Amino acid sequence: MAEKGDHGSTGSYSGPPRMQTAGLLSVFSVLLVIEGVTRTNLYIDRNSDWDGDSRIFPRVVLLIAGLVEIVFSFSGLLVGLGELFLELGNATLTLFSMFTMLIGWFTYVVYTLAYPSFIVDKASSGYDPLTESEYRGIQIMGIFGSVAYCGALQGGQFFFAHQLYHIQMRQSGEVYTRSYYKGRLYCYSFFVLLAGLSQLVAGCIVIDRLATGELHVPQVASPYIIIYPEMTITVSVLIICYGFFGIAAAMNVIPLAEFRTNMAGALFSAFIFVAQIGFMDLPQAGLQGDNYPSHVSLGSMQPGLLLALVLMPAYLISKLSAIDPGVAPV
């Protein structure tokens, strides 16, 4: 009965469904595989300056971080698919996979903090018509965006691996309470707000300093590539609204027991995902070519980041909606 829903025959909360958890773990893991392979291909160049210097970030660190991402994402994918198709539910293997995911935060630190911070620190003049401070400001907003998007993706994978582990240990009914889901909803809604606010600030800097319409030279601050500033600002406002929706759900401002609330969360997340694809990813189609190899690679990774950001709050809202406060632990 628990596989069909979150409630047993008596109405008590029995924990999240096992196959649903394994499926979502597989989804997040395969998105990370794509990201890791893309990053590795980008920096596996024999002609690279492996050691780096005062002006070049060591390429060997970026390559190792990409390879680490492939390893921990594959471990999650194997556990998820093993549970889905072969019913090889083994808590020990899941725990080992979670350990590799913890090592994977090395990749998170390198690509979201260390490398972008190095770029900001080494920024100098020559970004006409942007001033040095404006360029640094856009890059810093990119760091905040990376923290949010990559945090949602890697955090989501670990979340579902952790959930699957407790299901395999038959502890999910005790662990996954309303307070647990509320805390995670606050966390992932904060990621959404951080992504929206950082993108809004970056877009405002660009549109104020440069111009409206298509930019001749795109402004890049991974995970953002600003080609049409108006699109950047529009989608950032939508993302911010979605973040506040998640916060409101966690604070019980909206009635979570209502089916419409659950459905509204799912539809809102789907709308934000489509808007992000249309306003953030598809405009990069014109950047194909030898002049923008890293930009094209970023465009191939973006859909996974965009999906993870909107999926986690919607999932957590659905779980909160499934728990009756009258019968479930608070």
From TrEMBL:
Does the record's keyword annotation contain Transmembrane?
yes
In the UniProt record, the signal sequence range is none
- Alphabetically ordered keywords of this record: Membrane, Transmembrane, Transmembrane helix
**UniProt key word Acyltransferase:** no
Record-annotated membrane-spanning stretches: 21-44, 56-81, 93-118, 138-165, 185-211, 231-251, 263-280, 300-317
User: Could you identify this protein by its name?
Assistant: Uncharacterized protein
Specify the taxonomic lineage. Answer: Eukaryota, Viridiplantae, Streptophyta, Charophyceae, Charales
